[in-house]
Structure formats: C-alpha cells, structure tokens
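Box 3.1 A note on notation
Throughout this textbook, protein chains are presented in two layers. The first layer is the amino acid sequence; the second is a token string describing backbone geometry. Keep the layers aligned when reading.
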Amino acid sequence: MKRLYSLILVVLVLLLSACSNKSDVQEPVNPTPEEEVEMTATAKALGITNANYPKIDGSTSTLGIVQAVYRAMYSENAEAYSKHYPTAASKTVPSYKLLINGDVDLILVPYASADVLELASASAVELEFHRVAAEALIFITPAENTAENITREQVRSIYLDYGITNWSELGGPDRELVPICRNSDSGSQSQMDNLVLNNEDIHPDIQKNYVELTMEGMLELVAFYHTGGLSGAPTDSYALGYTLYTYLQNMNNITGIGDSLKILSYDGVKPTEESIADGTYSLSDGYYAVVRSDLPANHSARAVIKWLQSEEGAAAIEEIGLIPCRK
C-alpha cells in the first residue's frame, strides 16, 4: 500500500511540474498537411501551400495583421479554416524569443528593444526587419485635462527622474500628475524605450506603483484613475500614459474609450494619420515583419513579406485600421 501511495505521489509531482513549466506563449497552429485545405489564388501565386505555410506570431497590436495574412492565403471554403484561424498572439518580447529560438518563422511586431537585440546577439542570431505598417507612440491623459502638449524633455523628466508631479508645469490644471508605465516586455514599452528613454530605467517609484500590464488596461486606467475607480474616492489628479496610435483608434471604434481620453501633442506636433505616415510626428515608427537572416531565400515566410509590402497587402493592412507603408 505504501508503494502505491508513493507511486501516486510521484505521478502527481510530475504532473504539477509539467503544468508549472508550461510556456505562456501562443503556439502557432496551422492545418496539418493531411487536412483537406483549399488555398487562395494569392497563395498559389506566391507558392504558398498548406504544407509550407510559415509559423507566424507577433504582438497583441499586430494580431490583426497575422489574421489578414491567414485570410489572404486560406480559402474560407476550406474545412480547416475556422479550426486553425489565429485568435491569440504571444505578445512582443515572447514572440521575439520564439523567433530567436527558431520556433517560429516570422513575427509581426514593433521594432526590437535593446534587450531583445542583445539576446539575439548573444544567441548568434541576426534579425532582419521589414517595415509593413506605420505606427506611433502617443501620450494620453483624461479628456477633462486642459493640458495640450508634452515635450521630450518633460517626458524624460517625468519617467526617469519623477521630476514633474503637477500638470501646471505642462500648462494644465493644478492637479497631481500620475505617470503610468507598461511592463517591460510590452510593445508600447519597447517603443517608449527606443524612441524617448534611450533604454534608461524608469524611476523605481513609478515601476513600483503604476505599472499596467495590458494595452486595454492602460487606456482604462489613464481615463479613469482620477475618479478613484469602483471602490475609491475621486482624487485631485490626472494620469499620464502612453500607447500606440492605431491601437487607440481601433479600441475607440469598439468601446468608445477615446471619448474619455485626450491625445497630447508631442513637441508641438499633433499625432494624426498624416503626420505619422509622413514622419512629421517624431515618434513615428512602425510594425515590422521580422525573420532570422539565415532564413532561406525561397522560404514561404519571405513570400508573406512580399505580399505584405504589395498593394494588395497594403490594402489589407489599411482595412484592419492600420496605416500601410506604400512604396
């Protein structure tokens, strides 16, 4: 009997260990070659088949592009279409790690942070970046806030030194300025690090008290922080946060959250689709199709990049609410 109990205990430990080590990344799943799958004319023209369809992953904000690629390549008449339609992403840094490890062929993401580039270098992997859509980092505050503009120096003072704590210093009301930041492995944080903070560390008091873990959560927290939330009392403050321009536009179309937020001008330039596309807005960057440089020239992932940078691909990117990079 003791032997039986010991055996059961070992099995339970192994099961718990397997659960605890399970990765939280999204495993890209394509239809198996054995499944009856009809490809589109676009896929056939590019030489993409069900058997060679690349493993694609990316960030939360680029899931729509991953889905657009799938729709362009797989016929909706295919029996496996709905079964394998991509519905989740591994997020920015985890998808970079998957690519560096060789677990996926192509990722659609914001540009890599210094930490990711260092990881690739340490792994002797060279990353290849192909810009497929324009995007921009933007700063947001509640719609009620009368402040209109923020400068690079002010952002750096706030997030690196916690040196500005009242909106009156930015031309706003005499209210506490509460800076919200994102988790280090998010796409918007990578943009913040690359474009504004030069990969310097955010002040520890901000990281300790005001980190938001999701893109949607950032919008909600900034919009309503001063109201005290469901269980708190209103405060004499307004929050400051940052997100990606097209993400906010698309979320506003779904939830209307944009009515509760104000997008601040940055160094005197208002972020618009036009100022982002032409680079007038200085925090313009983009979404990239990223592969390892050792990927064979005839790999299907490279055919997907070719499609994304074509007029047809640009139209598909525009249709999902992003700003295409037309040549």
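The chain has two domains: 36-134+286-324, 136-284. The mean pLDDT is 89.
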